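Extended Data, panel c. Modelled sequence:
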Amino acid sequence: MSEQYPTGGNMAQPVSQQEAQQVAAEQLAGQAAAAPAPDAGASIEQMQQDNREVLLPMETRINEMMEAFQSSQTTQAAQIAELQKQLAAARDQAGPPAVEQYANGVAALLKAHAAANPDVPAGTFDDVRAVAGQLQQAATDAVTSRDPSELNALAARVTRWADRYAGKHIDLSSVRADLELLGEAAARLAA
């Protein structure tokens, strides 16, 4: 074994390698204990807390905005329901829309002509009365959908029948007048 001499005060005593390593380890341990700990930054808990402190006001604001939106939606739904009730009451007071009145008039006039003329051949009014029934339903549907295309097509079929009717003289001018007024009401409905 080689002998080493300690540096410093007592140079007369030889030191073994094992003793030298022990002295060095003790010196390093002492220096490590005395040295300040390295700064690794904030702990994970501290970082999470810092994030929460930043995010918490934003989350609170978002929640407040969501509550305000929900409240306004509830208010608007109540207002819409009230307006729908008022509209229904106004429609009830005004009676059926003009397209329905004229479609019902056409159907009633055709029924009256069929009843008033029992001497015309059987079935003369059957087809046109069936179309007039469809016309009544189309008028109701057109009020809801605001699309009078089917109504106009059925009215044209009744008009063609009235124009082509040949047989006993029957004055269909009232049917034609209601069909004309029905066409005008349907045009207003689509506008």
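The longest helix spans residues 44-94. This feature is highlighted in the accompanying rendering.
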